[in-house]
Amino acid sequence: MTSSIQRACVCSLASIALAIACGGGGGGTGGPLLADAGLMSGIDESTPVLSLTPAQKTFLCEWVATRIGGYGRTIDCGSGDTISSDTYSECLAGGMFTNVSPDCAATVSDVETCINGVVEQQPCTGFPFGCLNILACAEP
Fold it and tell me: I need a surface site. Which of 84, 99, 117, 121 has the fewest CB within 10 A?
């Protein structure tokens, strides 16, 4: 996988979505105002991303949005690396966790580690090591 494809993978998954550094309150693109939900999503950390129920996909997508500052937000980590949260309507449909590669071995813990690693950087200067496990999850 090339680095630009890897960046795109991380963007769409974490489309995992980390956009925190960009600003404060507000729900971003639609949806309610979000308060930071904390370091853990509340879903069993050992749950594979591929095994998430539709409700868990929506919940995890919304957790990502709370961590990064709202729906539809993007964090620029430099060198073309960005992570974005899904919009409110995308989260209601399961968001970035709906179209996942069958090769995805990432767990909820991997998602939490990646998102928290980006959020904890002030400002984000690159993807944390914890994001590597989710790169294979984006559909080709």
Answer: 99
User: Using CA atoms, how far apart are residues 115 and 131, in angstroms rounded to an integer?
Assistant: 8
Mean per-residue pLDDT, 95-108: 91
Residue 79 phi/psi, 5° resolution? Answer: 55, 30
Phi, psi of 122 (to 5 degrees): -130, 95
CA distance 57 to 35: 19
| pTM, full prediction | 0.76
Cis peptide before 32 (omega within 30 of 0): no
Residues 6+ apart with CB under 8 A from 119: 18, 20, 21, 67, 68
